[in-house]
Amino acid sequence: MLSVTDAIEIVQQHCKVRNSTSIPLICATGLFLTENVASDIDSPPFDKAMMDGYAVRSAEIGPGLMELPVAAEVMAGQTPPPLPVGSAIRIMTGAPIPAGADSVVKIEQTQLVADGRVRIDPPMPSLGQHVMRRGQEMREGDVVLQSGSQLTPQAIGLLATVGRSSIQVRPRPTLAILSTGDELVEPENRPLAGQIRNSNAYMLIAQATRAGADVQYLGISRDHVDALTERIAVGLRGDVLVLSGGVSAGKLDLVPGVLRDLGTTVHFHQVAMKPGKPLLFGTCGETLVFGLPGNPVSSFCCFELFVRPALRKMSGGANAPLSWSQASLEEKYRYRTDRPTYHPSRVAQQNGRLSVRLVPWFGSPDLRALADANALALLPVGDNEYTAGQLLDVLPLD
User: Fold this and answer.
1) pLDDT digits (tens, 9 = 90+) for 270-310
2) Among 1, 7, 52, which residue's Cα sits nearest to residue 301?
3) In this structure, how many other beta carbons lie within 10 angstroms of the beta carbon of residue 250?
4) Topology of 21-43+137-170 in CATH?
């Protein structure tokens, strides 16, 4: 049976990076740049005050108490007059520094006195105090973001600072989700005898959205070849099709056959892992097809291990499929497994190190246990008794 590592490698080999396109900056959060971006201005574009206070010539401020006439007041967005000799100008944070001034005395170090004068208390201001010089943040022509950078909210703000209202990126992959099964009903319906609510689709929609995909929900297909064929054909028009259920070896597990009839090449079907053994992966043209098992924890784990890294690569992210860490086990634990097991777990920071607690879990249908987890801990094959403090490989989910 195929190992998880080999299965991930096969998926990655079939991921095609999406072509670059220009989109509005406001829509680009989380995407990956396909161009170097340079600043079109000096920033700040002028010497500016970093504090509310008074702009002064530092050389004119002697030791002890000092009183100066207030010649003017300048707000952010205004052009200040030059600073007269032996005077101060009231200035607000972000306002341009008046010509002739070289430092700002913060408001907490001053007191207004009679006749429109300000008293400056010690210590004496130093040259350049509370002043951000023109171009100190960046100069015109400086490359501020490299191609391949992921656009975080702070990067979006930086792009706006350098005048970009649109940007060249790799667009989000389109991903369709289809649930299969005669037993499924949507969440708003109370299940009748033999029915269950369709939790998987909504979980997978959330996972795909978190992973940066544009998601299309295709609803529930009943376990009939014609119904499956119609819905799957729609899903194969996008970049990725994720099916939940119908991929095991039961009488009504019809998905593999329908996929093949629609021209899908199946690259593997079964992986040596728990939960998630029946996972199917194939391609139809350039569309990636993932057939996930119907049990919710299986479906969740397969998405995190295989689909999420594929979406990242298609979006232009670095080819680092999974970001594993090591965490110290909080308490002893015994577990027997014939396949590598991805156990729902809770990871926390303790004294600068990661610790992990294995969440009580009753197997692949136990979605409530998974809701308590923020990581998956990898438990190797065998009858293992883990001791407190032992290091385990963990995959954070946040």
Assistant:
1) 999 999 999 999 999 999 999 999 999 999 999 999 999 99
2) 7
3) 11
4) Molybdopterin biosynthesis moea protein, domain 2 (3.90.105)
